[in-house]
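Sanity check record (used in CI):
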Amino acid sequence: MTPDADGGCGQVVADLAALGGFFVLAAPPSPGTDALPWADALADEALRARFATVRAALAASSGLPLDQVDLKVAVSATQVGLASRLWSVALAGAVLHGWLPDLSPANLLASPGHRGPVPLGVGRQGPGYAVPAVGGDAAAAASVVAGAVLPSLTLLADACARTGRTPRRVLTSNATSALVGGARVLAGLRPRQGPAAWALARALLDLPQVADGGARVAAASLPDGVGGAMEQADEAFLRSGCCVFYRLPGHGLCPDCVLAPSRAGEVTPGH
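Expected output for Ferric siderophore reductase C-terminal domain-containing protein:
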């Protein structure tokens, strides 16, 4: 997929900033920031430092000694945060504007450290991808969005698997759960576009690369409190792996966890 020269990035970036949170994209970052090319931000040394910072933050927020925070939890949290930013930017651009910035590894930037000044950015503002209207052809829109996002997500998963020695199933399901979470937040922030956000998320979940991480299921087939919330009360999301956050003392299973149906009593509501 080749980026086009659409100049609509400025308005997209402004709307992303208005949404806040994981939707914010620096395009391009301000001069003098520490933003690095995506591959450099995911290099072994940079990732090990990021994992250590996230681990310390988890320990502090949980009131735990550092040695009680499993390093794989920090790896998982790091990957979830970055994957959530990628999916959030892509979903909002596609649904609200029918246009995506170039999120390929060659154009993507990020600070090397957790909570750096550039959580996510792009080097060039102009190039991007026109996305078909979701209401007209959700599958076509999903194909464009996936093509824009998956290469960078794959590089992220490869790096976390290599440097963080974390199982692929954890990382794959984290990324798909991040997609569903991004759709949920976007629909909450822009209710009028909520149906389009969910239609795009469902179409993405139908793609094999995304479906490996989880799928929609009938809510009635799950115990009470189990399953990630989706648009309709009769549907839920269940991931194919576990984020391993349950290894933090005092933290139970997430509602969408693959383990949750058989261990419903261990689910922590709202996670």
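Confidence is low (pLDDT under 50) at residues 1-5. If this sentence no longer matches the regenerated tokens, the check is flagged for review.
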